[in-house]
Amino acid sequence: MYAEERQQQILQAIEQDGRVSVSALARRFEVATETIRRDLDALSLAGLLTRVHGGAIPSRSGDEPDLPTRLSTNTAAKRRIARAAAAYLPAGSDPTILLDAGSTTIELIPHLQGRNLRVVTNSLPVAESALAMNVPAVDMLPGRVRGLTRAAVGVDTVHALARIHPDVAFIGCNGMGPAGITTPDPDEAATKSAMMEAASRRIILADSSKAGQ
What we know:
Blueprint: H1 3-17, E1 20-21, H2 22-29, H3 33-45, E2 49-52, E3 55-58, H4 67-71, H5 75-85, E4 96-99, H6 103-108, E5 118-121, H7 124-132, E6 137-140, E7 144-145, E8 152-153, H8 155-161, E9 168-172, E10 175-177, E11 180-182, H9 186-198, E12 201-205
Helix pairs in contact: 2-3, 8-9
Domain HTH deoR-type: 3-58
Function: Repressor of the lactose catabolism operon. Galactose-6-phosphate is the inducer.
GO molecular function: DNA binding; DNA-binding transcription factor activity
């Protein structure tokens, strides 16, 4: 069976059952578990499903807009938030900031121009934008890249975050309320939690549309 045919059947199984496991799919298709993981990663990158521990669930794209959509939403408010957040950029000798994925976080990048600092991020667009602004040092965190957010998430990302201690973390979210910030993807949630643990100071970047979500 070709990979494309197997992946199509995986999507059908997720739609029917609501969740699939790597081990069950490996038995069903008589392939190695690593082959199934590659299939699920490819489908996740395409935004066709959501990876969870041990398997996958249906894509949450209906609840979680993709990055281009978010970049074009509430742009003026996000720029104002980024301008205010720039006041919290650390001074001193070679400070390190941690930038989460997100449309508001990207708006912070122009405020980094001319600053002597190191950027650590899990976001491909943030890294690309920081390089375009000639930020002296840009470090990309490892991990599985989600198609919807173009952000590295997962176990490797969390482990890497445990080894660094940035001065400030600027973190985005899908929602916020009395219990804290929220995001619909469990891997994204674990990554944001690890970012908050790693940093000496945490700044949440969110516009009014996130309240109560």
